[in-house]
Write a structure and sequence with these properties.
With about 280 residues, the protein is of the alpha/beta class. The protein has a single domain, classed as 4-Layer Sandwich (Metallo-beta-lactamase, Chain A), CATH 3.60.15. Helix content is about 20%, strand content about 30%. It is built from seven helices and 14 strands. The strands form two sheets. The protein has a seven-stranded mixed sheet with strand order 6-5-4-3-2-1-14. It is globular. Bound molecules: zinc ion (2 copies). One zinc ion binds next to α2.
């Protein structure tokens, strides 16, 4: 299991990314659905402080303290620095949960901050980026893997030549950062340069139809696709936060998207249903 996700606009959004044991946002119902997987989570990244993205935190923090599982494992919650709603929730937890058996750490983040998340063979990190959504600070997050590739000038060389170069002590390859996954939370269209060439982009499209949007704090389907296109998304655009008003029309929209023959897959995450992806 790689992704386990629930997203229904205004009600609840949370996303579990299993390779690095990360939870993005923690809307209502997260711990009920995740069950024992709550104990696997090491880090939670919150995009903003609206109720539908943080209401499940109290239960998750409590379950980690009392259910059947390793109740001594650390949990770290990262959130946009200066977000008032999250600060209020933090102070409630500080007062109501004085006897936690595990270390719970809250870390405020500015845009552009890096958090190391994986210490295996691959170097993985999460880097925050700015999003536009409401008055309080909000953030999106990129999961990044540091990889090696041949330097551009060496890519056409035959194996024999490469071996010689390497033997002579020359550095034949270079490090580069590949975005594996980008989570935008709720937002108006994300600046494509912030999620450039990501493999999977998770973007808000609360409104599948532009005319239904009253206030400019969420994106539309068309805008999300434009962002993915401009960012040259490599594999897939995952559309989240879809308003439940469209729940019986998803097939219709899927047909339209297929007709556009886009260079990446587009998936509409059905509002109100658990979504899994291997
Ligand atoms: Zn929301
Ligand atoms: Zn919101």
């Amino acid at each position: 299991m790689k992704l386990l996700l629930y997203s229904k606009g205004l009600y609840s959004t949370w996303l579990y990314y299993s390779p690095d044991r990360l939870l993005f946002d923690c809307g209502e119902g997260a711990s009920s659905f995740l069950g024992n997987k709550c104990f696997a989570i090491q880090r939670i990244f919150l995009s903003h402080g609206h109720t539908d993205h943080i209401a499940g935190l109290l239960s998750l923090i409590n379950i980690r303290n009392s259910a059947m599982g390793d109740t001594s494992k650390d949990l770290t919650i990262y959130y946009p620095a200066g977000n008032r709603q999250i600060s209020l929730l933090k102070s409630y937890v500080d007062q109501a949960q004085r006897r936690l058996k595990y270390p719970l750490t809250w870390v405020p983040l500015e845009a552009g901050e890096k958090v190391e998340v994986f210490s295996g063979q691959m170097d993985r990190s999460v880097i925050s980026f700015p999003t536009q959504h409401g008055k309080d600070p909000s953030l999106g997050y990129n999961i990044i893997e540091e990889r090696k590739r041949l330097k551009p000038e060496n890519r056409e060389l035959p194996q024999e030549e490469l071996r010689k170069l390497a033997k002579s002590g020359e550095t034949i390859d270079e490090l580069y950062q590949q975005k594996l996954f980008s989570f935008g939370g709720d937002s108006t269209p994300i600046d494509p340069t912030l999620v450039e060439e990501t493999e999977i982009l998770c973007h808000d499209a609360t409104f599948l139809v532009e005319e239904d949007r009253d206030i400019f704090s969420h994106a539309t389907l068309k805008e999300a696709i434009q962002v993915a296109h401009a960012a040259r998304v490599k594999k897939e655009l995952l559309i989240i936060h879809i308003s439940s008003r469209y729940k019986h029309q998803l097939e219709e929209f899927k047909q339209k998207i297929d007709d556009w023959e886009l260079p990446f897959k587009v998936t509409l995450v059905p509002p109100g249903r658990i979504f899994r992806q291997e």
